[in-house]
Design the sequence.
């Protein structure tokens, strides 16, 4: 798993060469765990990314960076984990969050789906976009926010343990294969 991640993630040399990322060099030198690829930092990065991935505001990546720093997790992995919510998955995830919230609060959809404010963006004025977004969030009500907390925390915990277990299994499989090869080589000689 580590080899696969190393193939796709940039390394220290790449950051040194890239002019737009040079400001990160000294900061990453002080906090090497933000770029380190091991079972714990990757699992923490996934947990940090999934914890904020479902927030329906454009602060997910920034929040995942802060949480990766606080949890001592891998920053690129936290960033990638936030991408679970994208334009294709936003609507189904939002409905899932709302349904989980309705189930937990046992509300009958007090802010029923018919009363949810229609989200309209007026791109000519940025303040109207924020007002529309907050009006839409307010119309979703208690059920949505309870569901958001449950889904975010639950997916974060599940993501952490899933990465941890998969990483351990992959290491055991690699060790088993290595031991079989060693044994086969010893039997030949």
Sequence:
């Amino acid at each position: 798993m580590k080899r696969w991640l190393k193939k796709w993630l940039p390394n220290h040399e790449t950051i040194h060469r890239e002019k737009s990322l040079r400001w990160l060099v000294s900061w990453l030198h002080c906090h090497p765990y933000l770029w380190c690829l091991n079972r714990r930092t990757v699992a923490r990065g996934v947990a940090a990314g999934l914890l904020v991935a479902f927030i329906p505001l454009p602060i997910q990546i920034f929040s995942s960076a802060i949480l990766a720093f606080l949890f001592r997790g891998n920053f690129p992995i936290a960033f990638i984990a936030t991408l679970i919510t994208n334009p294709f998955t936003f609507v189904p995830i939002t409905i899932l969050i709302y349904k989980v919230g309705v189930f937990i609060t046992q509300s009958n959809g007090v802010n029923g789906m018919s009363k949810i404010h229609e989200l309209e963006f007026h791109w000519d004025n940025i303040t109207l976009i924020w007002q529309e977004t907050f009006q839409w969030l307010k119309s979703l009500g208690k059920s949505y926010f309870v569901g958001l907390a449950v889904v975010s925390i639950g997916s974060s915990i599940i993501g952490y343990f899933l990465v941890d277990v998969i990483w351990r299994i992959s290491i055991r499989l690699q060790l088993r294969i290595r031991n079989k090869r060693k044994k086969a080589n010893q039997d030949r000689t």
Q: What stands out?
A: Residues 121 and 129 are 5 Å apart (CA to CA).
